[in-house]
Write a structure and sequence with these properties.
The chain is of the alpha+beta class. It has helices at about 40-50, 95-100, 110-120, 135-150, 165-185, 195-200, 220-225, 230-235, 245, 315-325, and strands at about 1-10, 15-25, 30-35, 55-60, 65, 80-85, 155-160, 185-190, 205-210, 210-215, 240, 255-260, 265, 270-280, 285-290, 295-300, 310-315. It contains ten helices and 17 strands. It is globular, with a radius of gyration of 23 Å. Bound molecules: adenosine-5'-triphosphate. Adenosine-5'-triphosphate (ATP) binds next to helix 1.
Protein backbone atom coordinates (compact mmCIF):
# COMPACT_ATOMS: atom_id res chain seq x y z
CA UNK A 1 0.00 0.00 0.00
CA UNK A 2 1.09 3.54 -0.74
CA UNK A 3 0.35 5.57 2.32
CA UNK A 4 0.43 9.35 2.68
CA UNK A 5 -0.03 10.64 6.22
CA UNK A 6 -0.67 14.27 7.11
CA UNK A 7 1.64 15.65 4.44
CA UNK A 8 1.99 19.43 4.17
CA UNK A 9 4.43 21.14 1.86
CA UNK A 10 5.68 24.60 0.86
CA UNK A 11 8.41 25.48 -1.66
CA UNK A 12 11.25 27.71 -0.53
CA UNK A 13 9.23 30.88 -1.00
CA UNK A 14 7.17 29.68 1.98
CA UNK A 15 3.84 29.73 0.19
CA UNK A 16 1.97 26.53 1.25
CA UNK A 17 1.13 24.28 -1.71
CA UNK A 18 -0.32 21.20 0.03
CA UNK A 19 -1.86 20.81 3.47
CA UNK A 20 -2.73 17.76 5.49
CA UNK A 21 -2.80 15.33 2.58
CA UNK A 22 -3.89 11.81 3.55
CA UNK A 23 -4.14 8.93 1.10
CA UNK A 24 -4.22 5.14 1.17
CA UNK A 25 -3.61 3.59 -2.25
CA UNK A 26 -3.91 -0.19 -2.51
CA UNK A 27 -1.56 -2.37 -4.56
CA UNK A 28 -2.78 -2.38 -8.16
CA UNK A 29 -5.14 0.53 -7.59
CA UNK A 30 -5.39 3.31 -10.19
CA UNK A 31 -5.79 6.78 -8.69
CA UNK A 32 -6.25 10.00 -10.64
CA UNK A 33 -5.36 13.35 -9.12
CA UNK A 34 -7.32 16.20 -10.60
CA UNK A 35 -7.70 19.88 -9.91
CA UNK A 36 -7.18 23.24 -11.54
CA UNK A 37 -3.77 24.26 -12.88
CA UNK A 38 -1.37 25.11 -10.05
CA UNK A 39 -3.32 23.23 -7.36
CA UNK A 40 -0.34 21.01 -6.55
CA UNK A 41 -0.84 17.81 -8.58
CA UNK A 42 2.77 17.63 -9.83
CA UNK A 43 4.07 18.61 -6.40
CA UNK A 44 2.17 15.71 -4.84
CA UNK A 45 3.61 13.25 -7.40
CA UNK A 46 7.12 14.55 -6.67
CA UNK A 47 6.55 14.05 -2.95
CA UNK A 48 5.32 10.48 -3.57
CA UNK A 49 8.49 9.78 -5.55
CA UNK A 50 10.81 11.37 -2.97
CA UNK A 51 11.97 14.30 -5.09
CA UNK A 52 11.03 16.87 -2.46
CA UNK A 53 11.79 17.02 1.24
CA UNK A 54 8.67 17.25 3.34
CA UNK A 55 8.87 18.74 6.80
CA UNK A 56 5.41 17.68 7.85
CA UNK A 57 3.98 14.20 7.32
CA UNK A 58 5.19 10.87 5.99
CA UNK A 59 4.95 8.73 2.88
CA UNK A 60 5.31 4.93 2.92
CA UNK A 61 5.29 2.24 0.26
CA UNK A 62 4.46 -0.87 2.31
CA UNK A 63 7.06 -0.75 5.12
CA UNK A 64 9.54 1.50 3.31
CA UNK A 65 9.46 5.19 4.08
CA UNK A 66 9.82 7.43 1.02
CA UNK A 67 12.43 10.03 1.89
CA UNK A 68 13.41 13.16 0.01
CA UNK A 69 16.79 14.23 -1.45
CA UNK A 70 18.11 15.28 1.97
CA UNK A 71 18.23 11.57 2.86
CA UNK A 72 18.88 10.01 -0.56
CA UNK A 73 22.01 10.48 -2.63
CA UNK A 74 20.04 9.54 -5.74
CA UNK A 75 16.57 11.08 -5.43
CA UNK A 76 13.65 8.80 -6.29
CA UNK A 77 12.74 5.24 -5.35
CA UNK A 78 13.75 1.97 -7.03
CA UNK A 79 10.29 0.42 -6.82
CA UNK A 80 8.60 3.48 -8.33
CA UNK A 81 8.88 5.27 -11.63
CA UNK A 82 7.86 8.83 -12.21
CA UNK A 83 7.12 10.08 -15.70
CA UNK A 84 7.39 13.84 -15.45
CA UNK A 85 6.16 16.40 -17.95
CA UNK A 86 9.77 16.89 -19.09
CA UNK A 87 10.58 13.48 -20.54
CA UNK A 88 13.84 11.93 -19.45
CA UNK A 89 15.00 10.54 -22.81
CA UNK A 90 18.36 10.14 -24.54
CA UNK A 91 17.85 12.18 -27.74
CA UNK A 92 20.91 10.95 -29.65
CA UNK A 93 20.13 7.24 -29.35
CA UNK A 94 17.41 5.15 -30.97
CA UNK A 95 13.97 4.40 -29.63
CA UNK A 96 15.02 0.75 -28.98
CA UNK A 97 18.11 1.87 -27.07
CA UNK A 98 16.04 4.23 -24.96
CA UNK A 99 13.49 1.56 -24.09
CA UNK A 100 16.16 -1.11 -23.53
CA UNK A 101 18.54 0.97 -21.44
CA UNK A 102 17.47 -0.56 -18.14
CA UNK A 103 16.80 -4.09 -19.42
CA UNK A 104 19.17 -6.93 -18.67
CA UNK A 105 21.54 -7.54 -21.60
CA UNK A 106 22.40 -11.09 -20.49
CA UNK A 107 19.62 -12.65 -22.51
CA UNK A 108 19.61 -10.51 -25.64
CA UNK A 109 16.76 -12.43 -27.30
CA UNK A 110 14.53 -11.85 -24.30
CA UNK A 111 15.55 -8.22 -24.19
CA UNK A 112 14.62 -7.70 -27.85
CA UNK A 113 11.27 -9.45 -27.29
CA UNK A 114 10.51 -7.19 -24.33
CA UNK A 115 11.37 -4.07 -26.34
CA UNK A 116 9.08 -5.30 -29.15
CA UNK A 117 6.27 -5.90 -26.67
CA UNK A 118 6.60 -2.43 -25.12
CA UNK A 119 6.87 -0.65 -28.46
CA UNK A 120 3.74 -2.44 -29.61
CA UNK A 121 1.94 -1.36 -26.44
CA UNK A 122 2.68 2.32 -27.13
CA UNK A 123 2.21 1.87 -30.91
CA UNK A 124 5.79 2.81 -31.75
CA UNK A 125 6.98 -0.45 -33.37
CA UNK A 126 7.70 1.33 -36.67
CA UNK A 127 10.13 3.76 -35.04
CA UNK A 128 12.44 1.34 -33.20
CA UNK A 129 15.56 2.41 -35.11
CA UNK A 130 14.79 6.12 -35.25
CA UNK A 131 16.84 8.46 -33.09
CA UNK A 132 14.64 10.05 -30.43
CA UNK A 133 15.55 13.59 -31.41
CA UNK A 134 13.80 13.06 -34.77
CA UNK A 135 10.48 12.18 -33.13
CA UNK A 136 7.54 14.48 -32.51
CA UNK A 137 6.59 15.48 -28.96
CA UNK A 138 3.78 12.91 -28.85
CA UNK A 139 6.02 10.14 -30.16
CA UNK A 140 8.64 11.00 -27.56
CA UNK A 141 5.99 10.82 -24.87
CA UNK A 142 5.10 7.29 -26.03
CA UNK A 143 8.76 6.24 -25.95
CA UNK A 144 9.08 7.69 -22.45
CA UNK A 145 6.09 5.56 -21.37
CA UNK A 146 7.67 2.40 -22.80
CA UNK A 147 10.95 3.29 -21.10
CA UNK A 148 9.41 3.57 -17.63
CA UNK A 149 7.40 0.37 -18.16
CA UNK A 150 10.60 -1.48 -19.10
CA UNK A 151 11.81 -0.84 -15.57
CA UNK A 152 8.87 -2.86 -14.17
CA UNK A 153 7.93 -0.48 -11.38
CA UNK A 154 5.55 -1.53 -8.61
CA UNK A 155 4.22 2.02 -8.57
CA UNK A 156 3.95 4.27 -11.59
CA UNK A 157 3.48 8.03 -11.20
CA UNK A 158 2.33 9.73 -14.39
CA UNK A 159 2.14 13.50 -14.83
CA UNK A 160 -0.18 14.38 -17.73
CA UNK A 161 0.98 11.26 -19.62
CA UNK A 162 -0.91 12.00 -22.86
CA UNK A 163 -0.56 15.79 -22.99
CA UNK A 164 1.41 15.77 -26.27
CA UNK A 165 -0.46 12.92 -27.93
CA UNK A 166 -3.08 13.61 -30.58
CA UNK A 167 -6.69 12.51 -30.11
CA UNK A 168 -6.33 10.01 -32.93
CA UNK A 169 -3.91 7.93 -30.82
CA UNK A 170 -4.92 8.96 -27.33
CA UNK A 171 -7.93 6.71 -26.86
CA UNK A 172 -6.21 3.56 -28.08
CA UNK A 173 -3.10 4.32 -26.09
CA UNK A 174 -5.08 4.90 -22.91
CA UNK A 175 -6.87 1.57 -23.34
CA UNK A 176 -3.58 -0.27 -24.03
CA UNK A 177 -1.63 1.34 -21.24
CA UNK A 178 -4.21 1.32 -18.47
CA UNK A 179 -5.30 -2.22 -19.39
CA UNK A 180 -1.67 -3.38 -19.22
CA UNK A 181 -1.07 -1.67 -15.86
CA UNK A 182 -4.22 -3.28 -14.39
CA UNK A 183 -3.21 -6.74 -15.65
CA UNK A 184 0.28 -6.31 -14.23
CA UNK A 185 -1.22 -5.06 -10.90
CA UNK A 186 0.96 -1.96 -11.07
CA UNK A 187 -0.22 0.80 -8.74
CA UNK A 188 -0.83 3.96 -10.78
CA UNK A 189 -1.19 7.57 -9.73
CA UNK A 190 -1.94 9.91 -12.64
CA UNK A 191 -2.12 13.70 -12.48
CA UNK A 192 -4.40 14.92 -15.23
CA UNK A 193 -6.66 17.67 -16.54
CA UNK A 194 -8.45 15.40 -18.95
CA UNK A 195 -11.66 13.67 -17.77
CA UNK A 196 -11.13 10.98 -20.41
CA UNK A 197 -7.90 9.94 -18.66
CA UNK A 198 -9.81 9.11 -15.51
CA UNK A 199 -13.56 8.52 -16.01
CA UNK A 200 -13.17 5.12 -17.73
CA UNK A 201 -10.00 3.95 -15.96
CA UNK A 202 -9.45 5.34 -12.46
CA UNK A 203 -10.61 3.29 -9.48
CA UNK A 204 -10.73 6.48 -7.42
CA UNK A 205 -10.25 10.16 -8.07
CA UNK A 206 -8.65 12.62 -5.66
CA UNK A 207 -9.64 16.27 -6.12
CA UNK A 208 -7.22 18.99 -5.00
CA UNK A 209 -8.25 22.59 -4.42
CA UNK A 210 -6.57 25.42 -2.52
CA UNK A 211 -3.94 23.09 -1.00
CA UNK A 212 -6.42 20.51 0.34
CA UNK A 213 -7.98 17.28 -0.85
CA UNK A 214 -11.64 18.26 -1.15
CA UNK A 215 -13.00 14.93 -2.44
CA UNK A 216 -11.96 11.30 -2.89
CA UNK A 217 -14.40 9.00 -4.60
CA UNK A 218 -15.04 6.77 -7.59
CA UNK A 219 -15.21 8.68 -10.90
CA UNK A 220 -18.88 7.73 -11.26
CA UNK A 221 -19.89 9.07 -7.85
CA UNK A 222 -17.92 12.27 -8.32
CA UNK A 223 -19.39 12.84 -11.76
CA UNK A 224 -22.98 12.05 -10.85
CA UNK A 225 -22.96 13.73 -7.45
CA UNK A 226 -20.43 16.57 -7.63
CA UNK A 227 -20.25 18.46 -4.34
CA UNK A 228 -19.78 21.78 -6.05
CA UNK A 229 -19.25 23.57 -9.34
CA UNK A 230 -15.43 23.26 -9.08
CA UNK A 231 -15.62 19.46 -9.16
CA UNK A 232 -18.31 19.35 -11.84
CA UNK A 233 -16.33 21.77 -14.02
CA UNK A 234 -13.37 19.38 -14.03
CA UNK A 235 -15.61 17.00 -15.99
CA UNK A 236 -17.16 19.48 -18.39
CA UNK A 237 -19.33 22.58 -18.75
CA UNK A 238 -21.58 22.79 -15.71
CA UNK A 239 -24.07 25.23 -14.18
CA UNK A 240 -25.47 25.97 -10.73
CA UNK A 241 -29.20 26.40 -11.03
CA UNK A 242 -31.62 27.48 -8.26
CA UNK A 243 -33.83 24.51 -7.65
CA UNK A 244 -37.02 26.54 -7.24
CA UNK A 245 -36.78 27.57 -10.89
CA UNK A 246 -36.89 23.93 -11.88
CA UNK A 247 -39.24 22.55 -9.28
CA UNK A 248 -41.75 25.10 -8.08
CA UNK A 249 -42.41 23.52 -4.69
CA UNK A 250 -38.70 23.21 -3.79
CA UNK A 251 -36.82 25.11 -1.12
CA UNK A 252 -35.96 28.49 -2.68
CA UNK A 253 -32.36 28.86 -1.50
CA UNK A 254 -31.01 25.60 -2.87
CA UNK A 255 -29.06 25.20 -6.08
CA UNK A 256 -28.08 22.08 -7.94
CA UNK A 257 -25.33 21.33 -10.41
CA UNK A 258 -26.56 20.66 -13.94
CA UNK A 259 -24.17 19.64 -16.74
CA UNK A 260 -24.70 21.39 -20.05
CA UNK A 261 -25.76 18.13 -21.73
CA UNK A 262 -28.47 17.49 -19.11
CA UNK A 263 -30.70 20.35 -20.28
CA UNK A 264 -33.38 19.78 -22.89
CA UNK A 265 -34.60 22.78 -24.88
CA UNK A 266 -38.36 23.38 -24.95
CA UNK A 267 -40.41 26.06 -26.66
CA UNK A 268 -43.02 26.17 -23.90
CA UNK A 269 -42.01 25.91 -20.26
CA UNK A 270 -39.02 25.54 -17.96
CA UNK A 271 -36.08 27.79 -17.09
CA UNK A 272 -36.40 30.80 -19.39
CA UNK A 273 -33.09 31.66 -21.05
CA UNK A 274 -32.13 34.28 -23.62
CA UNK A 275 -29.58 33.01 -26.13
CA UNK A 276 -26.22 34.85 -26.28
CA UNK A 277 -24.29 32.65 -28.70
CA UNK A 278 -23.88 29.20 -30.26
CA UNK A 279 -20.60 27.29 -30.61
CA UNK A 280 -20.20 24.34 -32.96
CA UNK A 281 -18.76 21.39 -30.98
CA UNK A 282 -18.89 18.62 -33.58
CA UNK A 283 -21.78 16.39 -32.49
CA UNK A 284 -23.75 19.27 -30.94
CA UNK A 285 -23.80 23.03 -30.36
CA UNK A 286 -22.86 24.56 -27.02
CA UNK A 287 -25.32 27.36 -26.46
CA UNK A 288 -24.49 30.21 -24.11
CA UNK A 289 -27.50 31.92 -22.60
CA UNK A 290 -28.56 34.12 -19.74
CA UNK A 291 -31.31 33.85 -17.14
CA UNK A 292 -31.87 36.48 -14.44
CA UNK A 293 -28.36 37.85 -15.12
CA UNK A 294 -26.73 34.42 -14.69
CA UNK A 295 -24.84 32.68 -17.48
CA UNK A 296 -25.98 29.22 -18.44
CA UNK A 297 -24.53 26.74 -20.94
CA UNK A 298 -26.46 23.93 -22.56
CA UNK A 299 -26.25 21.58 -25.53
CA UNK A 300 -28.54 21.68 -28.51
CA UNK A 301 -28.54 19.91 -31.87
CA UNK A 302 -28.63 23.17 -33.85
CA UNK A 303 -27.52 26.78 -33.32
CA UNK A 304 -30.05 29.19 -31.81
CA UNK A 305 -30.64 32.77 -32.81
CA UNK A 306 -29.06 35.38 -30.53
CA UNK A 307 -31.74 37.12 -28.42
CA UNK A 308 -34.25 34.27 -28.78
CA UNK A 309 -35.93 33.10 -25.57
CA UNK A 310 -36.01 29.35 -25.00
CA UNK A 311 -36.96 27.19 -22.04
CA UNK A 312 -34.73 24.59 -20.44
CA UNK A 313 -35.88 21.40 -18.80
CA UNK A 314 -34.04 18.85 -16.73
CA UNK A 315 -35.19 15.29 -16.15
CA UNK A 316 -36.71 14.55 -12.79
CA UNK A 317 -34.13 11.76 -12.36
CA UNK A 318 -31.29 14.27 -12.63
CA UNK A 319 -32.95 16.67 -10.20
CA UNK A 320 -33.57 13.92 -7.70
CA UNK A 321 -30.05 12.54 -8.10
CA UNK A 322 -28.52 15.96 -7.32
CA UNK A 323 -31.02 16.67 -4.52
CA UNK A 324 -30.39 13.31 -2.86
CA UNK A 325 -26.95 14.16 -1.48
CA UNK A 326 -27.14 17.15 0.84
CA UNK A 327 -23.55 18.20 0.11
CA UNK A 328 -24.45 18.50 -3.57
CA UNK A 329 -26.84 21.28 -2.87
CA UNK A 330 -25.83 24.78 -1.91
N1 LIG B 1 10.00 24.70 -7.93
C1 LIG B 1 9.03 25.49 -7.48
N2 LIG B 1 9.33 26.56 -6.67
C2 LIG B 1 8.36 27.36 -6.19
N3 LIG B 1 7.03 27.19 -6.44
C3 LIG B 1 6.68 26.16 -7.23
C4 LIG B 1 7.66 25.27 -7.79
N4 LIG B 1 7.00 24.33 -8.52
C5 LIG B 1 5.70 24.63 -8.44
N5 LIG B 1 5.50 25.73 -7.67
C6 LIG B 1 4.21 26.33 -7.32
O1 LIG B 1 3.47 25.37 -6.59
C7 LIG B 1 2.11 25.39 -6.96
C8 LIG B 1 1.68 24.00 -7.42
O2 LIG B 1 2.37 23.69 -8.63
P1 LIG B 1 2.21 22.29 -9.35
O3 LIG B 1 3.12 22.27 -10.51
O4 LIG B 1 2.33 21.20 -8.33
O5 LIG B 1 0.67 22.38 -9.83
P2 LIG B 1 -0.15 21.47 -10.85
O6 LIG B 1 -1.47 21.24 -10.23
O7 LIG B 1 0.65 20.27 -11.20
O8 LIG B 1 -0.27 22.44 -12.08
P3 LIG B 1 -0.45 22.12 -13.65
O9 LIG B 1 -1.77 21.40 -13.76
O10 LIG B 1 -0.49 23.46 -14.29
O11 LIG B 1 0.72 21.26 -14.08
C9 LIG B 1 1.97 26.47 -8.03
O12 LIG B 1 1.52 27.64 -7.41
C10 LIG B 1 3.37 26.64 -8.55
O13 LIG B 1 3.60 27.96 -8.97
Amino acid sequence: MLQVDHVSFAYEDGQPVLENINLRIAIGEHISIIGESGCGKSTLLKILYGLLDIEVGEVYWNDTQVLGPAYNLVPGQVFMKYLAQDLDLMPFTTVRENVGEYLSVFDSEKMEERIDELLELVEMSKFGDTKVRYLSGGQQQRVALARVLAQEPQVLLLDEPFSHIDNFRKNGLRRNLFGYLKRQKITVVTATHDPMDMLPYADRVVVLKDRFIIAKDTPKNLYERPQDLYIASLFGEANRIPINILKSYADTKRRIIVYAHEFKVSEKSGLEVVVKGSYYMGGYYMIGGIYEEHDVYFHHHKPLEVGKAVFLNISIETINQRMATPTNVE
